[in-house]
Amino acid sequence: MIELEGVPELVDPVMVAAFEGWNDAGDAASTAVSHLEREWKGEVFAALDAEDYYDFQVNRPQVWLDGGVRKVTWPTTRLSVVRVDDADGQGRQRDLVLVKGIEPSMRWRSFCNEILGFAHELGVEMVVVMGALLGDTPHTRPVPVTAVTSDPDLARSMSLEESRYEGPTGIVGILQEACTHAGVPAASLWASVPHYVSQPPNPKATLALLNRLEDLLGIRVPMGELPEDARAWQLGVDQLAAEDSEVAEYVQSLEEARDTAELPEASGEAIAKEFERYLRRRDGSPKPSGEPPQPELGPESPDDSDDPDE
Fold first, then answer.
1. What percent of the chain has pLDDT over 70?
2. Helix and strand tally (H, E) in the chain?
3. pTM listed for this prediction
């Protein structure tokens, strides 16, 4: 039985989850949840038992010193709650249950059932799982983010795509399906990360996921330094690509392919969403400062499927 002592009664709670590993190219999704937790000062209230779900030869524990005392941090999945006092810029409160961890090594059905147990006890109204995949997308263009669901009713009510993916899946796809079978509305957000620059961090993809989450939930997320980090990341990749003629030529071919396709970013609906996002943020926050880590070009080959894994 799950007992949640000390967790207050939540307001319109939505669970937002991301998992490091196969579903998290460039660490874009896990970084997005970490950003939410940091900006809204979330406090961890529960952690899954690491012994039940992780192979410690695959995900090794970390040893560290705390005032000269050696401690061990075990790989696991942790849950925290954040209260958004001004969710829509008009004083409306909303709570987010944040789930951040590592894709489990075993017992995926039990893992999802435990997550859903917390969702039930907390009265979660909807689950949103974020992921990122490698794709043939140029770093110079807006990051494509696909929002999919297996729930036809949710697809209609929230203008989401019904998933048609078939193939290998990760914990994101399994958790979404577990939610569907349990009658919990669930959607997943997938950012496409350039395969030729897949090393983390990728602040541009993280920013795109958070922007799409804002649109989906009708909330206003404080972005902090992310916009500046995303600009610096793109500039860094521009400079690295310019030093390699083959990479520069390849990026140009991706740009041409992207530009000849119908860009959803240029649609009237997307422009309207961008304007709504601007209105939510027009009070703004202090201009960020600081230099983010510079990206590196990598030899990785593209994923063999452009479709997001459920």
1. 82
2. 9, 10
3. 0.81
